[in-house]
Design a protein that fits this description.
This protein has one helix at 68-72; strands at residues 29-31, 38-40. The protein is elongated. The termini are far apart. It has one helix and two strands. It has a two-stranded antiparallel sheet. The protein has 73 residues and is largely without helices or strands. The chain has a domain at 1-43.
Amino acid sequence: MNSYKQICPYCGCVEEECYANWDSDSDGTVTCSKCNKDYYSMPQYRFEGWQVEKICEECGEKESECYCEGEAE
């Protein structure tokens, strides 16, 4: 694990970010773009806490994205 890049364990090819497996809901099987061998690659994410905000009763948006009060003034 301990890698911020998706590297093929067979040939060492570093996959470009746009082709790397970022989907943690997948089965993790990927095919190397260089040697065409299948290998397992699953993104690992670290939980950093919760973002909590009130929802505006007037427009239904998060407070940080609501502009109702600004327009009323």
